Amino acid sequence: QVQLVESGGGLVQAGGSLRLSCAASGRIFSNYAMGWFRQAPGKEREFVVAIRWNGDSTYYADSVKGRFTCSRDNADNTVYLQMNSLKPEDTAVYYCAAARYRYSSRAADYDYWGQGTQVTVSS
Hints:
The chain is mostly beta strands. Helix content is 0%, strand content 50%.
């Protein structure tokens, strides 16, 4: 019932910035906690950040804390991930996800997933 579409990925040099967007449709967006995950080739899917339904609380992975900022605009059904000071190890496909009942860092707690957007950080 919920569709998620990520955008904003691309190729940047180390130290650069990107802003990812996740547009949601199909259900009441404001009722869902949202999260970002990433997956590099040959590696497990990794938690990046979760944001509560009203955007008043966020939880970041230690690897991105202080560099990435997640926000949401429920009126626009969109969640954002501002990525600054990018490092080569940030290279991955980034996925947006929605959780109807949970605010969580675990992928298994999320009910809907987007297709992903590629982020590549060169050295």
